Amino acid sequence: MRAPTTLGQRIRRARDREGLTQAELADKVGVTAAAICNWEAGTEPRGHNRIRLEAVLGPLSKRKKANAEGKAEEGAPATADREVSSFGVWLRDQRIKASMSVPELSRAANVSAVALYNIESGKIQNPQALTRDKLAEALKQVVPQDVVADTESEQAIVGLGSLTDFDPYAKQDWPTCPGVYVLYDISQRPIYVGKATKNISKRLQGHFNMFWFKDPIVRYGSYIEVQDSTLCHQLEQAMIKFLKSNAVINKQSSGKL
């Protein structure tokens, strides 16, 4: 049985994940590099030091156990077998060059830290243009056109468009176009397929207060814009039938919007 990680180990791993040296982290926290070294060796930061440290590195409490599928909770660094999108690679590179941690960029861009971890780890492949723009603005950069093109083409469906990811809990970023959408659980299993012939956000609003619309049952969302209402219905029906019982909540078409 694997021994539990110590606080010092979690500090070091979080620092490595953010691409910071001990001196760089010390400068952000407002302490000496020796203090960081001592914390990683086992001395526990307390009071305001702990608060400032977590403001830079994120929560340092012990991670939750892996879920039923054996997959780690959010916040873990990218795994070697998960492909990261062109935008995810660009984002991490620019964030490190700007000496910003994920929590710092999250606050500056008003994008959740979970979403940032998911983009950089490859769980989110094609974030919405609004999300990309907010992150670029916070970094004082412009996303190169070739990065945008590569990211969208990686998720493109010929004749339809690109599959786009969104945060189910960020209402301000919900897609307002017509189309088909999928909600996924914490292990990225599709648990709901739906359509909206006018406005996806209105359909999502109808789900938001349902007993099942909560984390970890719903963790991710993706959509594809479909303007033709007949094609929208056909695509939704085909996806539901292909997924069979995997789309555990919506097993038949629902919604007239």
List the helices and strands and how they pair.
Blueprint: H1 7-17, H2 22-29, H3 33-41, H4 47-57, H5 86-97, H6 102-109, H7 113-121, H8 129-138, H9 145-154, E1 156-157, E2 161-162, E3 164-166, E4 179-184, E5 190-196, H10 200-208, E6 220-225, H11 229-243
Antiparallel strand pairs: 1-2, 3-6, 4-5, 4-6
By CATH, the architecture of the largest domain is named 3-Layer(aba) Sandwich
Mean pLDDT: 85
Tell me the CATH topology of the largest domain: GIY-YIG endonuclease
Instruction: Give the N-to-C terminal Cα separation.
Output: 52 Å
The helicity comes to 40-55%
Given the helix and strand composition, which structural class is it?
alpha+beta
Give, in order, the helices and strands.
Answer: HHHHHHHHHEEEEEHEH
- The amount of beta strand, in percent, is 5-15%
Shape: elongated
Lateral arrangement of strands in the main beta sheet:
3-6-4-5
Total number of strands: 6
**Whole-number count of domains:** 3
User: What ranges have pLDDT less than 50 throughout 5 or more consecutive residues?
Assistant: 64-81, 252-257
Q: Any idea what the radius of gyration is?
A: 20 Å
Oligomer description: single chain
Tally of contiguous helical segments: 11
Q: Quick one: CATH class of the largest domain? A: Alpha Beta
The H-level CATH homologous superfamily of the largest domain, spelled out, is GIY-YIG endonuclease
Largest sheet, in brief, is:
4 strands, antiparallel
